[in-house]
Amino acid sequence: MFLARQEFGAQPPGMPNLPPVSLESRGSFIITITAFFTGFACAAVLARLYVRVFMLKKVGIDDYILILSMACTASVLAFTIKEVRLGVGEHYGNPHQFFNLQEILHWSYFHSWVIVLGNSSVKLSVGFFLLRLVQGRWYKVRLSQNCLSDVYVNPL
Description:
- The protein has 5 helices and no strands.
- With 156 residues, it is mostly helical.
- It starts with 26 loop residues before the first helix and ends with a helix.
- The protein has one domain.
- Helix 1 runs antiparallel to helix 2 and helix 4 packs antiparallel against helix 5.
């Protein structure tokens, strides 16, 4: 993006003649991949919930935690779309991304926390699922300790 009074390629004395910044964007590729895997995960969660609700007629705490993780996954898709519209996926020197960098970092902060919450909830869901399968008190205590330590250590 050059102003009309600037000459293209005019560099200050002593500076190398740099090529112009690429204006191509990989944002649509980022959104496509994220949307595909979000849709795949949503289909897997819906299939699991269908079996648990309508066939087994028994819903456990692991299913509710899995719904929370699916909500986090949908939120990650929404954050990704917002960030791509602000310039994520464009060349680092692109003026569109440069002018929106503060807002991109703002949304990336919340994006990161939603990812951590989603990862932790998936680990908890798997832990509660395994607690139903494990026999013996000692194994249940040890598995519970592992789940809690994963939740506390994961954000670090």
